[in-house]
Amino acid sequence: MSETTEQSLPADDSDIRRMTFEEALAALERIVADLEHGEVPLDRSIRIYERGEKLKNHCERLLSAAEDRIEKIKLSRTGKPEGTEPLDLG
Amino acid sequence: MTLLDEPQTPASNITEYSVTELSGVLKRTIEDRFGLVRVRGEISGFRGRHSSGHCYFSLKDERARLEAVIWKATYAKLAFKPEEGLEVVATGRLTTYPGSSKYQIVIEEIAPAGAGALMALLNERRMKLEAEGLFAAERKKKLPFLPRVIGVVTSPTGAVIRDIRHRIADRFPVHLVVWPVRVQGETSGEEVARAIAGFDAIEAGGPIPRPDVIIVARGGGSLEDLWGFNDEAVVRAVAACSIPLISAIGHETDWTLIDHVADMRAPTPTGAAEIAVPVKAEISAALAGLHARQDGAAFRLMEHERRAVAGLARALPSPDMLLALPRRRLDEAASGLSRSLRLGLSDKRRLFGEAGARLSVTSLEHSVQQKRAELRHADACILHGLQSSVGLRRQRFDRVASLLRPQAIAAKGDEKRARFDVFAQRFEAALAHSMEARRGALTTAGRMVESLSPMRVLSRGYAIIRDTDNNPVTRAADLLPGMSFEVEFAAGERRRAVAEEDGAPPRPRPAPRRRAAKAAEDQGSLF
Predict the structure, then answer these.
(1) From A85, which residue of chain B is nearest by alpha-carbon distance?
(2) Which of B140, B137, B144, B83 is nearest to B110 (CA)?
(3) What is the pLDDT of residues B273-308, one digit of tens each?
(4) Domains and CATH numbers, chain A
(5) Domain B19-115 is classified in which CATH homologous superfamily?
(6) Which is nearest to B87 in space by CA: B110, B63, B109?
(7) What pTM did the predictor assign?
(8) Percentage with pLDDT > 70 across chain B
């Protein structure tokens, strides 16, 4: 059994929402490794399986949240940014 | 010129000038003679632009020094800016400054004196900045794995931004914000430095998205073309920037100072795009793979537990199996029981048969005859024994009888008889006295009995109530209304009567008086 998962398993899974993609992916990898190792008690394995599902959903949400957009900073006369405008690359 | 003046002046053919005239002649001569020259020398005493916008410094070599000036308008158009210590080839016009007896070159163009000179300068600057620790590996920031917004400092037109855009769209389309800068020319370094600082100054959550990573990119070019990215201001801006930064200047072989200070150096702008974002499809596949592994592992775990339970369940004996052994023992015992019962029965029957066979009338008769013979024999023995015993006892009696003496017995009898006579007299007297006393007591008791006889009571006017069964009735409750009874008077005379009212006291005979009283009560009730 992995001590890391043992320690880092919080009471609920609300921490997942604040995770970066990398953190969530790493947590999911640990859970998968623990499950594959097969030495997790049954009730705990169910618990971490559910957490793994949530981590996976969070990762997918982050992947799909990225915007396909390109903009250009509008600069004032003094060179300060005033906002953005679409950039047409032609 | 006049005659009067001549005697005052010494005779000389040398033309006399005023200082101004001479300075003017000199100025014309020099400007005509050195209308446009190229001069090679090291920039010295360069202190940047004067507040007027002009630049003043000198060009020097081992033995000489030439004052130089770059006018404000010219400076702005310079492709390459003068730098202290740099060996340059300056093109310009010589002129004089009559006010202080000086000559100088007014530079119109300036260029490094060959690549070697620039490289030497670059090397010197690199070592200086390195000594400050700006290029240290521990300063490098980790790039985000999955940036949401990428800031790009480059020209908004041209191939570079298009290449970056396409490569990022191919891998993982994210939000690009371009900070437009000139990537060439004397202002480029300053603009790039401002852009980097500008991105870093954007607050998260504001109208302009704050980038998670910055790419500073430019296409390939000569050393002079890329010179802006060696600008110390650029290096310091990158070092101060809190957002991870990727530099991608020129081709892979082109190294500029920004490459040293950047958190990651990409060989090309396209390479920067590849460093900045992962391939979404690969991540999705990896995520899907992880998910499948999780499902598989969880399934196997459950399956393992399920098999363990099933195995245990199988190992658990069934109730039939559990009872099989005792049942078999019971069956064996039961079957053994009937067999042994039959066996025992037949055994007993056999014994009985044998005994029965032995039990016959002849054997009985035989036994009787035997017993009878024994009896006869015993009878004979008794008679013989009796006869011998009587004979023996008679001899002993005769012997004892001969010893008896009647006189002694007679004397003893007389004495006893005298004592007996005395006691007989005393007994008769006592008996007579006792009889007398008892007779008196009997007479007294007889009188007492007579006085207590109910018959005597009846003769005094009492009567006995008897029910139909001739039992005396002593309580009025025993005599229910309608019951017949008898009244016994003295001398056994009897009269029959019937009980009337319930609970009423014995009604006195004179009824009319009672009726009158009752009438009086009735009348009384009228009032």
Answers:
(1) B177
(2) B83
(3) 999 999 988 888 988 999 999 888 888 888 888 898
(4) 15-78 (1.10.287)
(5) Nucleic acid-binding proteins (2.40.50.140)
(6) B110
(7) 0.53
(8) 93
